[in-house]
UniProtKB/TrEMBL annotation:
<dbReference type="InterPro" id="IPR052894">
    <property type="entry name" value="AsmA-related"/>
</dbReference>
<dbReference type="GO" id="GO:0005886">
    <property type="term" value="C:plasma membrane"/>
</dbReference>
<feature type="domain" description="AsmA">
    <location>
        <begin position="270"/>
        <end position="506"/>
    </location>
</feature>
<dbReference type="InterPro" id="IPR007844">
    <property type="entry name" value="AsmA"/>
</dbReference>
<dbReference type="Pfam" id="PF05170">
    <property type="entry name" value="AsmA"/>
</dbReference>
<protein>
    <submittedName>
        <fullName>AsmA family protein</fullName>
    </submittedName>
</protein>
<dbReference type="GO" id="GO:0090313">
    <property type="term" value="P:regulation of protein targeting to membrane"/>
</dbReference>
<feature type="domain" description="AsmA">
    <location>
        <begin position="2"/>
        <end position="124"/>
    </location>
</feature>
């Protein structure tokens, strides 16, 4: 018991002695020299302050300096300035007369870092930090970080509250805190295996994590060379909205139903200012893919390269967005086209998919590529299986002097016509195997300019098919010499061996100089036109039926007709003016089998 009381008494005596002697051990000049030495080791610059420092014990000896500044040798503004700097002193070194700060607290500091046009920073990073530093903790309250790159782009973090723990120069340093960037609050934490190795250019372990509403990221790996960082490790990034995240990085995309949630998990490496994702798992709007991706930040325009493979790629929302964009452009035809995306970065992306969905349309195996370089966009579909047919296409667009120009080339072979037209356009009255080509070009600064300059041509062929609505075979058999007809001529179908035609596009009009349909015992010739920005149709044709020779009903029968209405609900009626023009003497032709058929057909088709 006496030993315990003696020990307690000794402790009390030591504490009392420390309280009495500490003010004499702590001198302002000694603390100033110690802080100056530490600051010089970290920044290469001297520390200045205003007024007289204050000393307090709470419970450790703490010296506070007001209006502290660390100057910059390349900028008239201070590199760092703060309302106050408090240095907490280690207890044991004070007992032997050594003044060493163990904790530094920065109140409302403002850090100003920048790189000029020549790539020179406004701070001097020493070749190596002091290896005998005993600084264990750095605490920042209400800080501001302002960084300006050589490209004049700025980074501003406000409300920085952070704590850096580094108990031993040869040990791991940890970081934890929060800040606000572009009105988005985020938390961060991380650790560096050996900071002295990082500063000296050697490799060391790195771990960091960022958590915020628009972005969550985690990295575990290694890093080297603080001046020009290099490293590799496992990276995971997720965002609920690419559009929101792009706005934070000064790449506004506006509102939209696409480019929402996204994530990437990959082994990542950074070298020569190029970030590479190998064996990456990438998901965008629920579309999952695997592949490789790299982003080059070495030039003024970031460059993205990659190869991605999808099991299923759903582009329905993107097709709807494109349709809305076209509708918006048509509603304001004189407004400039939104073409700024062609001037933001370079792109070289190759995509493959086992299945592509476009609304009700389904494409099979598809391979495509997209490039953006020198203000030019190139899209290419090397191959796409469409309902068993093969589609290939290429689109090229450029932006010069705020004017857009573009061209489209497309080809399709072996297309099952009924399935394709039914799914894509709701038209189910035509069947066969189709093939065709299309070529388009246009230029302009707005929608009106594009439509006025639009030109193109194409060709389409359908083989071994049929069309519904008229039974040509029954028509041939039921027209008799006495002008009577029997049987159901409507609602049937007619087979043909080949349908072939060409068409041209000029400004807002598509026209066909000739479509020819050939079948067993008949032939149809058709010409017509239709506006591109409306659904109306206007066509005229002749049906020629080859009748068996001999007898009163022998020889060819010609039935002229007119197609009107619209693409969704076309109408077909006999052309009475055509019948009248075929009279030899100009008088009203007699009522015969053809005119009887026309009069019977007209009310039904209406």
């Amino acid at each position: 018991m006496k030993k315990i009381l003696f020990a307690l008494a000794a402790i009390l005596i030591l504490c009392g002695a420390f309280v009495l002697l500490a003010p004499k051990l702590v001198t302002i000049e000694a603390v100033r020299r110690s802080l100056t030495r530490e600051v010089a080791g970290w920044s290469g610059r001297a520390l200045t302050y205003e007024g007289a420092p204050t000393v307090a014990f709470n419970p450790y000896p703490t010296v506070t300096f007001a209006k502290v500044r660390i100057s910059s040798d390349r900028d008239p503004k201070p590199l760092v300035e703060m309302d106050s700097l408090s240095a907490e002193l280690s207890f044991l070194p004070l007992l032997i007369g050594r003044v060493r700060p163990s904790v530094l607290e920065l109140d409302n500091p403002v850090f100003r870092f920048g790189v000029d046009d020549k790539g020179l920073p406004n701070w001097n990073l020493p070749r190596a930090l002091r290896g005998d530093s005993e600084l264990g903790r750095l605490v920042i309250h209400g800080g501001t970080l302002h960084y300006v790159g050589s490209d004049k782009k700025e980074l501003l973090l406000t409300g920085v509250d952070a704590r850096i723990d580094w108990p031993d120069p040869a040990a791991t340093a940890s970081l934890k805190g929060s800040a606000t960037w572009k009105n988005e609050a985020f938390d961060f934490n991380g650790s560096i295996g050996t900071p002295l190795d990082l500063v000296s250019g050697r490799q060391t372990a790195l771990r960091f994590a960022i958590a915020s509403t628009p972005l969550r990221a985690n990295f575990t790996g290694t890093v080297a060379n603080l001046a020009d960082p290099e490293g590799e490790g496992e990276l995971s990034v997720t965002t609920p909205s690419i559009r929101r995240l792009a706005g934070i990085f000064n790449m506004p995309m506006g509102e939209g139903s696409t480019l929402g949630s996204a994530s990437i998990e990959s082994h990542a490496s950074l070298a020569a200012r190029t970030l590479t994702f190998a064996n990456a798992k990438i998901s965008v709007d629920g579309n999952d893919s695997e592949g490789a991706l790299s982003i080059d930040f070495a030039r003024s325009r970031p460059s993205v390269q990659g190869t991605l493979a999808f099991e299923s790629l759903d582009l329905s929302a993107y097709a709807e967005a494109l349709s809305s964009l076209v509708a918006s452009a048509r509603a304001t035809p004189d407004e400039p086209l939104p073409l700024a995306a062609l001037d933001s970065n370079d792109l070289d992306l190759r995509i493959s998919a086992a299945q592509v969905l476009l609304g009700s349309a389904r494409l099979g195996r598809t391979a495509a590529s997209a490039t953006i370089r020198d203000d030019r966009l190139n899209l290419s579909i090397g191959e796409a299986l469409l309902y068993g047919g093969r589609l290939s296409a290429s689109l090229s667009a450029s932006l010069q002097d705020q004017a857009a120009s573009g061209s489209l080339q497309a080809r399709i072979d072996g297309l099952p016509v009924r399935a394709a037209l039914s799914d894509l356009f709701g038209i189910g009255h035509l069947d066969g195997i189709g093939s065709g080509t299309l070529s388009l070009s246009a230029h302009g600064t707005n929608w009106n300019g594009l439509m006025t300059s639009l030109t193109g041509s194409g060709k389409a062929t359908v083989a071994d098919g049929s069309f519904d609505g008229v039974n040509v075979s029954a028509l041939s058999q039921q027209i008799t010499a006495d002008g009577t007809m029997s049987g159901n001529l409507l609602g049937g179908s007619t087979k043909f061996t080949e349908a072939e035609g060409t068409f041209t596009i000029d400004a807002d009009q598509v026209a066909t100089p000739g479509i020819q349909v050939t079948g067993s015992g008949y032939q149809i010739n058709l010409t017509g036109e239709a506006p591109l920005q409306a659904t109306s149709l206007s066509a005229r044709g002749d049906l020629t039926i080859q009748r068996a020779t001999g007898g009163a009903a022998s020889g060819p029968v010609r039935v002229p007709f007119v197609i009107g209405g619209n693409w969704g609900h076309p109408t077909l009626v006999p052309d009475f003016s055509g019948l009248s023009r075929r009279s030899d003497n100009g008088a009203e032709p007699p009522v015969g089998p053809v005119r009887r058929f026309a009069r019977a057909l007209l009310p039904a088709m209406r």
